[in-house]
Amino acid sequence: NSASVLAGIPGPVKDRALRAMADRLSSDEAAILSANEKDVDALAKSFGSDLNKDRLKAAVARVRMVAEDVKEMAERLRIIADQPDPERAVTGRGVRPGGPQVSRVRVPIGVIGIISELNPLVTVESIALCLKSGNLSVFRGAPDWVQTHEVIGRGLREAAQQNGIPDGAWVLIDRPEKEVAVELIRAGKALDAII
User: Fold this and answer.
1) Cα 176 to Cα 166: distance, rounded to the nearest angstrom
2) Using CA atoms, how far apart are residues 103 and 106, in angstroms rounded to an integer?
3) CA separation for the pair 113, 96 (Å, rounded)
4) Angle at 162 between CA 118 and CA 175, to 5 degrees
5) CA–CA gap between residue 118 and residue 123 (Å, rounded)
6) Which pLDDT tens digit goes with each residue over 59-118?
7) Do 117 and 142 contact (CB within 8 A), yes or no?
8) What is the CA radius of gyration of the chain?
9) CB 27 within 8 A of CB 167
10) Which of 49, 62, 71, 107 has its C-alpha lying 20 to 30 A from 27's C-alpha?
11) What are phi and psi of 47, to 5 degrees?
């Protein structure tokens, strides 16, 4: 669970890892775009004999990534790293009748399941926000970006592990079947929240 995987990791370690993850995205730009081209080709082939060129163009435009997209992902990671650490932040203090002092402190939710049909920027942001807040995430992205997610996920994981984040801080589900989303929703007590 997230308590054992992410417990006790100080904010500066998480921030250093997020910046290293951003640097890794930047250095992996060519590999990410190459993998994305494979996803675009697979999408185009999936249209088969469907000659609706407008629909095909729209689908390809939605899936295709360019260098600016990779730069934006890296920049978002740096922005998240620069934010104050939300974990264990005191958001309120008070004194109860009889004298006990009470504080309201932010704590991680636990394990957050995320299902998204949106582009890899959402994947990267979701992982980063969960990591920053001390939550483990289980992410199921759109099958349209299988190859792209694989390259991005590998780079992020390696950069994070080299900077003090243990393996298992997040899970990217790589099964493309639509049923996976339903399985995640039905995971019940295994997840503390689902988005």
Assistant:
1) 26
2) 10
3) 36
4) 35
5) 8
6) 899 999 999 999 999 999 999 999 998 877 777 888 888 888 888 877 788 889 998 889
7) yes
8) 19
9) no
10) 62
11) -75, -20
Q: Which amino acid is at 166?
A: P
Question: Cα–Cα distance between 62 and 22 in angstroms, integer?
Answer: 23
Cα–Cα distance measured from residue 118 to residue 186, given in angstroms and rounded to the nearest whole number: 21
Please list, in sequence order, all residues whose beta carbon lies within 8 angstroms of the beta carbon of residue 55, skipping any fewer than 6 positions away. 47
Please report, for residues 85, 101, 103, the alpha-carbon distance to residue 97 in angstroms, rounded to integers and kept in the order given.
31, 9, 14
Separation between Cα atoms, residue 65 and residue 54, nearest integer Å? 19
Handedness of CA 3, 76, 20, 36 (dihedral sign): positive
For residue 93, what are the contacts with CB-CB under 8 A and spacing of at least 6? 101, 102, 103, 104
Tell me which residue has tokens 């629909």: 55
Question: What does pTM read for this prediction?
Answer: 0.87
Q: Which residues pair with 90 in a beta bridge?
A: 105
Q: For 86, which DSSP code?
A: -
User: Alpha-carbon torsion 46, 52, 57, 62, what sign?
Assistant: negative
CA-to-CA distance for 123 and 114, rounded, in angstroms? Answer: 9
